Amino acid sequence: MVKVELKELKKTYEKSKVIAVDNLNLTINEGEFFTLLGPSGCGKTTTLRLIAGFEIPDEGKIFFGDEDVTYKKPYERGTAMVFQNYALWPHMTVFENVAYGLKVRKVSKEEINKRVTEVLELVKLKGMEKRYPNQLSGGQQQRVALARALVIKPRLLLLDEPLSNLDAKLRVEMREEIKRIQRELKITTIYVTHDQEEAMSISDRLAVMNAGKVLQVGTPEEVYFSPKNIFVASFFGKPNIIEAIYEGDDIASLDKGTKIKISKAEEGVTFAKGERIRILIRPEHIIPYERKEKISEFNIVKGKVVFKMFTGTMQELKVEIGENVFLYTLIPSDYKLEVGDTVGLQIPVERTLAFKAD
Ligand code: ATP
């Protein structure tokens, strides 16, 4: 277990002149499951490769505990990395793939047998020792890759989009497995993904990145419920972001004059009267008005259902509440509504988050 500190890290790729990592500061606590989350190209993999030692930063420092590892070779760092494509050796059996890292470290045959057996049990691959990678399913190959990383007892586990080659059901299964193993071993883990749902379900804390910078760090609940800016807010789920004019006293008006009482996303922020603002409302927080007791005088809007999508226990409705102003809502499927119906919607004030438009 080790604490990882990234201090003012910067990395520019000479060829592309891209600033992949831009003054990045992060602390990952001992034993923590920490995720770097962000859209493609935001610098997640580069950050992970800097931590592993596959890349050297132009500026900044990397500490493992008190140890400065910024310029150490990858094999001196005590980390292990699992790659998206597994990178298993096709000509080696499962046993040989997993044992390889111990062999090159000159561990005794007896100890190798013991540790490979233990780790294959941990990843639930007992009995598969003699198979070759092409005789395994994608999920099993992923388990071998994980076993190969864990067998060397790294102080830090690095996972780069390890589930992206698996189908949806297997992804969820393996996600739970990785979390179980991480909890059992209590190993500090840094996970890279662009999948917000995966990041929220697996992480103790996460960092949302964009264009080489960290925009927000927090628990999944913190970044979901208290996003610091509109980018972070819109990265999670499929929120409604509607434009409005601030009228003063926490009231904003939509076009056609519908008034919305808002809560501000950030403490201390002030809006001027007449200022254009953006209001974030999550579909699952909108309540069909007829169904629930009225909880406020404010924020009841009427509209027409223009699209309906059945998703199982819930239905997604697109409701036109003004000219070209739409609200997506997610409400239980047993609530009967069809395209063309008029519906009343209540937007709880505490569920609105208002941001400056810029
Ligand atoms: P993805 O999710 O698509 O893997 P990412 O968030 O992991 O993306 P990086 O792979 O770290 O992002 O890339 C960050 C930026 O650096 C991108 O603009 C990318 O094009 C650029 N980049 C990455 N590797 C190199 C390289 N070896 N040479 C030049 N530019 C690179």
Automatic annotation (TrEMBL):
InterPro entries: AAA+_ATPase, ABC_transporter-like_ATP-bd, ABC_transporter-like_CS, ABC_transpr_MalK/UgpC-like, Mo/tungstate-bd_C_term_dom, NA-bd_OB-fold, P-loop_NTPase, PotA-like. Gene3D superfamilies: 2.40.50.100, Nucleic acid-binding proteins, P-loop containing nucleotide triphosphate hydrolases. GO terms for molecular function: ABC-type polyamine transporter activity; ATP binding; ATP hydrolysis activity. GO terms for cellular component: ATP-binding cassette (ABC) transporter complex, substrate-binding subunit-containing. Transmembrane segments: none annotated. Residues 4-236 form the ABC transporter domain. Keywords: ATP-binding, Nucleotide-binding, Transport. Signal peptide: none annotated. The keyword Cell membrane does not apply. This is ABC transporter ATP-binding protein. It comes from Fervidicoccus fontis. The lineage of its organism: Archaea, Thermoproteota, Thermoprotei, Fervidicoccales, Fervidicoccaceae.
